[in-house]
């Protein structure tokens, strides 16, 4: 057996649903028996089942490919290569292999990276625990398989699966007024790193207050009272 073309490609249409037929380039998948005298019939299949082929189905007789099930938004974020097998009915040992590269519009095999190499945040030392201080974003923000982690101060900050940097321990300007650390991300194959700089902003620990906790006034025949406040030093 032999394929007419060595490789094929297809773009999965937006909003594709079960049964959507892929438009394959440079032409529909086609193989033939090189022994033209016999010209044995051929059937098509995927050479191996994997996480990518589960979304597609190839017609055994005609070789066209359809979407087998709705593809979630966080799947097929990079082009997938499916190995297509053409086998002769009269002799299963006589077969040929070709590849079909399937991708979504706008996807490519680009390196994983953060949209910024440095992130900065100015945070009041009084900010409540579990507050989101900033969010780091990659060029593959739709990919739910990404995993984030911090290289330092993990007892003070944490990073969520969506890239939020969250405060988990109270800040104190007098103890430490800045934190510099790195956030890492991986998709299992490629890694990315960005630097985070958190500046702690001082809050006045000596807010204005009354000189006395309680004041009493007797209105008859008494002049107006006066309240004094004092600012701590």
Characterize the structure shown.
- By secondary structure, the chain is mostly beta strands.
- It has strands at residues 2-3, 7-11, 24-25, 31-32, 42-46, 56-58, 65-67, 80-88, 91-103, 118-124, 132-135, 147-150, 157-159, 164-167, 178-186, 191-201, 209-210, 229-230.
- The protein folds into two domains: 2-103, Sandwich (Immunoglobulin-like); 118-201, Cadherins (Immunoglobulin-like, Sandwich), CATH 2.60.40.60.
- It has no helices and 18 strands.
- The strands form six sheets. Strands 3-2-9-8-5 form a five-stranded mixed β-sheet, with no helix packed on it. A four-stranded mixed β-sheet has the order 10-16-15-12, with no helix packed on it. A three-stranded antiparallel β-sheet has the order 11-14-13, with no helix packed on it.
- A hairpin with a 2-residue loop joins strand 8 and strand 9 (91-103).
- The termini are far apart.
- The mean pLDDT is 86.
- It comes from Graphocephala atropunctata.
- Residues 4-210 form the Cadherin domain.
Observed structural traits:
single chain, 233 residues, mainly beta, Immunoglobulin-like, 2 domains, four-stranded mixed beta sheet, rod-shaped
What is shown here, in short?
The chain has no helices and 18 strands.
């Amino acid at each position: 057996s032999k394929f007419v073309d060595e490789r094929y490609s297809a773009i999965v249409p937006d909003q594709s649903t079960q049964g959507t037929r892929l438009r394959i380039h440079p032409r529909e998948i086609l193989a033939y028996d090189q022994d033209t005298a016999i010209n044995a019939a051929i059937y098509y299949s995927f050479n191996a089942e994997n996480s990518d082929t589960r979304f597609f189905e190839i017609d055994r007789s005609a070789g066209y490919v359809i979407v087998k099930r709705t593809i979630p938004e966080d799947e097929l974020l990079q082009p997938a290569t499916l190995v297509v097998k053409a086998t002769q009915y009269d002799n299963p040992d006589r077969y040929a292999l070709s590849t079909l590269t399937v991708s979504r519009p706008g996807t490519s095999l680009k390196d994983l990276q953060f949209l910024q190499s440095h992130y900065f945040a100015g945070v009041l030392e009084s900010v409540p625990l579990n507050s989101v201080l900033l969010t780091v974003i990659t060029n593959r923000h739709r990919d739910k398989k990404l995993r984030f982690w911090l290289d330092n101060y993990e007892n003070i900050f944490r990073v969520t699966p969506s890239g939020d940097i969250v405060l988990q321990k109270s800040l104190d300007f007098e103890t430490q007024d800045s934190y510099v650390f790195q956030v890492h991300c991986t998709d299992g194959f490629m890694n990315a790193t960005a630097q985070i700089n958190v500046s702690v902003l001082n809050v006045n620990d000596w807010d204005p207050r009354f000189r006395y906790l309680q004041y009493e006034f007797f209105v008859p025949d008494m002049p107006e009272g006066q309240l004094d406040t004092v600012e701590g030093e």
